[in-house]
Design brief:
The protein has two domains: 4-153 and 323-390, Periplasmic binding protein-like II (D-Maltodextrin-Binding Protein, domain 2, 3-Layer(aba) Sandwich); 154-320 and 414-465, 3-Layer(aba) Sandwich (D-Maltodextrin-Binding Protein, domain 2), CATH 3.40.190. Helices cover 45% and strands 13% of the residues. The chain contains 22 helices and 13 strands. α5 crosses α20 (422-431), α6 crosses α15 and α11 (231-247) packs across α22 (448-465). The two termini are 32 Å apart.
Length: 467
């Protein structure tokens, strides 16, 4: 992701939360960010040195094919809000912004900084049917295509296949199956599940939202009424409470501790992002599996792990949390035709190379072309993943596992975006009312109904502050 291996792979949610809290100025400019010699200026939130270099190499291929020079500008997401605001005010917006998460796209759209017609033209050129439908829905609104969705990372439920098979348990695809497995597999040495509980971490919200979406627990409805105290949400808080109190790891749990517990073989299930895939296979030296069996075979845990992409509750249908990153064409770039050609190239000729920058966190949302419907999805499985060691995902995981991963964008959902409340989502990830309520569950301060009520009241307060 954009802050690279050390931050985004360890804390995908927390880094994203920075962008979700954007407060861009509603400023525009007549002049674009392109240089006088016709060079396209492309900001990329993939700002680690090796990723910037990889992106520039792809851009150089575009230049060779078209004659249009491209300058990739590494942009730190922690400074993106101030940088884009300054650029808009000065009339020096870049022509394109890459690796932009959903809430940042929504905020730029709100402040009229996007060329939605150009984005739609690119999608139409590439073929609407070649994209994941949820990816297009999440990156547009009211018929306008805000940006061109590029790739995504998924929040997943990882589980120990060996333990499940030995106990004769079904895959944890539903609330009932998760609860049954956590209870059955919980022992003094191995927890049934490890879940996030820290109240000041957006990762906790991602974990909860991943379970909530499948039970039709929504943050708001189309009328902007807050729904976190609805029966569906109370039911999700109850599941979370039961798991925490009865079959999880005690104490404060976050993105690092949940991973460490699962990697040590001390938990039967964990909710984490797809960035876990290369680490799980022993490809990153500072985050290696430490289970007893892993000492002789670093890939043992990967071989014995299954994944559930979409969970369903009694009152919903299978769904999951997922982040979509996009190519945004700006309204003030000044080189619209060249920008459209560049984005189309990055989503076609250069797409596989773009995905290869970090395949574990870049699941393709454009699966193929009109001529080859699975071209990019198939190529994704063969791309080398990892940090210190690199191996294709297809060498590490079975085909059914990879199929589930490739299909995961088709079940991506998010709170607030279908209800046109992206700004509210961003504000809540600044205040984190849901993680705070979950922390209240973990400490025993709140029961499920109380946690739901507190989260709802806090979101209502945030909502009023935005009016």
């Amino acid at each position: 992701m954009r802050n690279g291996v050390d931050i985004m792979k360890a804390v995908p949610a927390a880094a994203t939360a920075v962008l979700l809290a954007l407060t861009l100025g509603a400023c525009g400019g007549d002049e674009g960010g392109g240089d006088e010699d016709g060079t396209l200026t492309v900001w990329s939130l993939e700002n680690l040195t090796d990723r910037v270099q990889a992106t520039q190499r792809i851009a150089d291929g575009f230049t060779k094919a078209t004659g249009i020079p491209v300058k990739i500008v590494a942009t730190d997401e922690n400074q993106f809000s101030s940088l884009i605001t300054s650029a808009a005010a000065a009339g020096t917006l870049p022509d394109v912004v890459g690796a932009l998460p959903l809430a940042a796209v929504a905020q730029m759209a709100t402040n009229e900084l996007l060329d939605t017609e150009a984005a739609k033209a690119v999608v139409d050129q590439l073929g609407t049917g070649t994209f994941s439908a949820p990816a297009l829905a999440l990156t547009g609104q009211d018929g306008a295509q805000w940006a061109v969705p590029s790739d995504g990372w998924a929040q997943l439920l990882f589980y120990r296949k060996d333990l499940f098979e030995k106990a004769g348990l079904a895959a944890p695809e539903s609330y009932a199956a998760i609860r049954a497995a956590a209870e059955r597999l919980n022992t003094k040495d191995v927890a049934g599940i490890t879940l996030a509980t820290v109240g000041n971490d957006a990762f906790t919200q991602q974990t909860f939202e991943n379970l909530a979406l499948g039970n039709n627990c929504q943050m708001v409805d189309d009328a902007k009424s807050v729904l976190l105290d609805s029966p569906q949400c109370v039911e999700t808080f109850q599941l979370y409470s039961d798991l925490l109190k009865n079959w999880s790891v005690p104490g404060a749990q976050d993105v690092d501790t949940t991973r460490a517990t699962y990697f040590a073989g001390k938990a039967s299930m964990v909710v984490w992002s797809s960035f876990l895939l290369d680490e799980l296979a022993g490809l990153r030296n500072d985050a290696l599996p430490t289970c007893a069996e892993c000492k002789n075979d670093p890939t043992w845990l990967a071989k014995n792990t299954g994944v559930v992409t979409a969970v369903s509750g009694p009152q919903g249908r299978p769904a999951q949390f997922g982040e979509i990153t996009s190519w945004a064409l700006t309204a003030g770039g000044g080189q619209t035709d060249a920008a459209k050609r560049f984005v189309a190239y990055m989503m076609n000729e250069g797409y596989t190379d773009w995905l290869s920058i970090a395949p574990e966190g870049k699941i393709p949302v454009r699966k193929g072309t009109a001529e080859d419907a699975t071209k990019f999805a198939t190529a994704w499985s063969t791309l080398p993943a990892g940090v210190d060691t690199k191996k294709p995902l297809a060498e590490l995981y079975p085909e059914d596992f990879l199929t589930a991963m490739r299909q995961s964008p088709d079940t991506f959902q998010r709170w607030g975006f279908p209800q046109k409340q992206g700004a509210l989502v961003g504000a809540t990830l600044g205040e984190l009312p849901v993680p705070k309520a979950i922390n209240g569950l973990a400490t025993g301060e709140l029961d499920a109904a109380g946690a739901a009520e507190r989260a709802a009241e806090d979101v209502k307060t945030i909502q009023k502050s935005l009016e």
